[in-house]
Design goal:
The protein is of the alpha/beta class. The protein has a domain of about 220 residues: TIM Barrel. Helix content is about 40%, strand content about 15%. The strands form three sheets. Strands 3-4-5-6-7-8-9-10 form an eight-stranded parallel barrel, surrounded by five helices. It has a two-stranded antiparallel ribbon with strand order 1-2. α13 runs antiparallel to α15. It is globular, with a radius of gyration of 27 Å. The N terminus is likely disordered. Catalyzes the condensation of (S)-aspartate-beta-semialdehyde [(S)-ASA] and pyruvate to 4-hydroxy-tetrahydrodipicolinate (HTPA). Keywords: Amino-acid biosynthesis, Diaminopimelate biosynthesis, Lyase, Lysine biosynthesis, Schiff base. Pfam families: DHDPS. Belongs to the DapA family.
Length: about 375
């Protein structure tokens, strides 16, 4: 090897790449004769030709106006197999039940759907699966929000690339930003397609004040706001011509018929989609609303989606599998749910099996999946 290297008199080192390139005297002399305009080839620089499609590439064929008119949107539950993977058969059945009962849109991978427990690969796959199977029958709103603007941008690009009709975006949580930073965060994603802004201070630790929404409302792609602060805030927006969905099931009847809300993004509609449609479409019905309030209170006695996951398992429409850190409600609460189903009427709930209490040992808790 030493003999082979004797003919080389100079070296050019590239420490960053970790190797040495040797040039012979002959090669050096030849290079001197080349034109000063000559440039070395850039073979090592390979452009990424597989970036996600951008929304302006006509992948998203749903207008913002189509999203604005939706009255009942379900924040859909994600069911699991015993090993913690998605149970797509059960998931498809849940979506079909929503469609059959007149629900107009679904949130995929939201808080209720446990998007916070998914990898982004799982998340985008589930959005794409939903669009491919049901996109012609129901509007698919993908939760592609994040407290990282970079992640929100990337996830939204991918979500619109696989065909979601609209995006749901949260304000940055935990590592909170200033109000100017909040506006910049939303402006980074809102132009990609129809967008619903989600305000839930109890989870994010920071309210999205009206002036932020009013600034964002200048964008043609703002579909509206899912508002959890209360009906007075909803009234403030509707007076300004901004579309709002109630984010509180227990307030949605009054929000719809007394405060101008367009509709509701609901958890309870996972269980009784037909009755929730009646509340949103059939006019004021305080009797029906009062009938459902105990169920709504039961659902939210612990952080969502603990109650919903427990209830759907008791109805036999999903396996009793929980991704940690969520765990089922205790036995006494499961007994309460059975009584609520009997009071409201089993025929109004999804599924066709008898409601059961379920024992503690029936539930599977998965920490690695």
């Amino acid at each position: 090897m030493a003999a082979m290297l004797k003919s080389y008199s100079s070296t050019a080192c590239f420490p960053a790449s970790g190797f040495t390139v040797f040039r012979s005297n002959n090669a050096t002399n030849a290079s001197n004769k080349r034109s000063s305009n000559w440039k070395p080839p850039q073979a090592a620089i390979i452009p990424n030709l597989h970036l996600p499609m951008r929304s302006f590439e006509v992948k998203n064929r749903t207008s913002t106006e189509d999203i604005k008119c939706l009255r009942l949107i379900t924040a859909l539950k994600t069911p699991y197999l015993p090993d913690g993977r998605f149970d797509l058969e059960a998931y498809d059945d849940l979506v079909n039940k929503q469609i059959e009962n007149g629900v107009e849109g679904i949130i995929v991978g939201g808080t209720t759907g446990e998007g916070q427990l998914m990898s982004w690969d799982e998340h985008i796959m589930l959005i794409g699966h939903t669009v491919n199977c049901f996109g012609s029958k129901i509007k698919v709103v993908g939760n592609t929000g994040s407290n990282s603007t970079r992640e929100a941008i990337h996830a939204s690009e991918q979500g619109f690339a696989v065909g979601m009709h609209a995006a749901l975006h949260i304000n940055p949580y935990y590592g909170k930003t200033s109000l100017d930073g909040m506006i910049s965060h939303f402006e980074s994603v809102i132009s990609m397609g129809p967008t619903i802004i989600y305000n839930v201070p109890s989870r994010t630790g920071q309210d999205i004040p009206p002036h932020v929404i009013q600034t964002l409302a200048q964008s043609a792609t703002l579909a509206g706001v899912k508002e959890c602060v209360g009906n007075d805030r909803i009234k403030q927006y509707t007076d300004d011509g901004i579309v709002v969905w109630s984010g509180n099931d227990d307030q949605c009847h009054d929000a719809r018929w007394g405060y101008g809300a367009t509709g509701v993004i609901s958890v309870t509609s996972n269980l009784v989609p037909g009755l929730m449609r009646d509340i949103m479409f059939a006019g004021k019905n305080p009797t029906l609303n009062s009938k459902l309030l105990p169920l709504m209170d039961w659902l939210f006695q612990e952080p969502n989606p603990i109650g919903l996951n427990t209830a759907l398992a008791q109805l036999g429409v999903v396996r009793p599998v929980f991704r940690l850190p969520y765990v089922p409600l205790p036995a006494e609460k499961r007994i309460e749910f059975v009584n609520l189903v009997k009071q409201i009427g089993r025929e109004h709930f999804v599924g066709d099996k008898d409601v059961q209490v379920l024992d503690d040992d029936d539930f599977i808790l998965v920490g690695r999946y």
